[in-house]
Design goal:
Layout: H1 5-14, E1 49-51, E2 60-63, E3 74-76, E4 104-107, H2 110-120, E5 124-129, E6 134-139, E7 142-148, E8 170-174, H3 178-187, E9 194-203, E10 206-216, E11 222-231
Parallel strand pairs: 4-7, 8-11
Antiparallel strand pairs: 1-2, 2-3, 5-6, 6-7, 9-10, 10-11
Length: 232
Amino acid sequence: MTTNPKIHDVLFEAIKSMPSDYTDYGGMVRRWDNEETDYPDCSCGCRHFLPLDGPLGSDWGVCANRKVDRFGLLTFEHQTGSTCFEPMPGSYRHGPSFAPLVPELMVSNLAASLQFWCELAGFSVAYARPEEGFAFLYLGGAQVMLEDISVPGRKWLTGPLEKPFRRELNFEIGVDDAGALCSVFEAAGWPIYLPLETKTYRTSDASAMQSQFAVQDPDGYLLRFSQSLSQA
């Protein structure tokens, strides 16, 4: 099931901004401004975030925290969290269940990378160590770690970093709606490396069809977002 991107536009027009929201959404909390402060998302496993039914629930919900100004209001997953987040048992805030393979990407500016990965690509911050310039992100079952090379400390670099970083790699990330996500990047004016396409790949004695597009993050890492359509 897919979601019409126009529905997201209507919901963004409908949401009400509150002082406790992040500044990107009209609030007064400047995200990532304080290295000693954690800035969680509602979708990181907040016990008060009630997702909407259907595909919209991956991005939208209602705040059920009676102690805060967003109580009872339609809320975008990245809109708030610093003053109202309370983890539910089993959420990433109680310790993530690590995937067997988690890439750790060196980045030149963690704040800029977090804006890209979270505000555009839809990832959430599971946890962060601001003093180390480190953040662990997830989107569904996809996980990635980001580390700021400008922050002093141990760095596992096997060679010089020149943009675009790791130009020989591309990371495929499975999403529910590649078309809707591509529209988010296009609306933000972000360059599309590979325009949205439908592609069929042979898998042993079968074939798999998927919708996909690719973009580069601020450091040039190539990310290919794909949505499974069918398998024959």
